[in-house]
Fold each of these.
Amino acid sequence: MFVISSREFRANQKKYFDLAHTNDVIIKSRNHGSYRLVPIRENDAIFDEKALDEKIRQSIKDYENGNVFRMKEDESVSDFVDRLITAE
């Protein structure tokens, strides 16, 4: 783990971006607290919290209005998912 000041980070950004791929890098700022430098990987989920909240609210409204897909009796999960995908 590397703990560095924000000044050190600014002076050597490339070095710490490279190190973050294999090590924890903590950047400490006297005025702004501490931050952890973490590379974003291909499978990381990144979302906007406000947009996610809105999607959840809309989904609740859809459910309350009966705008839902129900699995049919004796339908396999695979068939149900296929039906969902083709319905959109």
Amino acid sequence: MKQNETVLRVRYKDTDQMGVAYYANYFIWFEVGRAELMRSLGLTYKQLEQNEIFLPVIEAYCKYKNPARYDDQIRVVTTLRFLQDVKLGFQYEIFHLEKDTLLVHGETTHAFVNKAGKPVVLRKQNPFLWRILRDKLPEM
């Protein structure tokens, strides 16, 4: 499975009064990791959208283990879990960079849809984009 790592710093605006990262920010960090993984495959979200392929989240999960705090550096490890005709799934682990402590793990599933929001079979709708994804993932 294809994997990518992204390092971020927890900003002050990402935290509450106690300096702890607000729970919803982890989903934003998942998105950053996902976009960077796609970029590492040679395919950006911008390219997908220019080809009228969109990836809405249809499922999301996050298990919180330890808090991230203001000014911590975090490492977002994103893995493409599966690629199917009409959807794909990602797995995430976020670690405290210096301590290498697992902060959260989660998953998201995304549908391939057109501009009208209707599901599409990517390999039929855009075989070129399908091949880009599949060629980078020979073990899937």
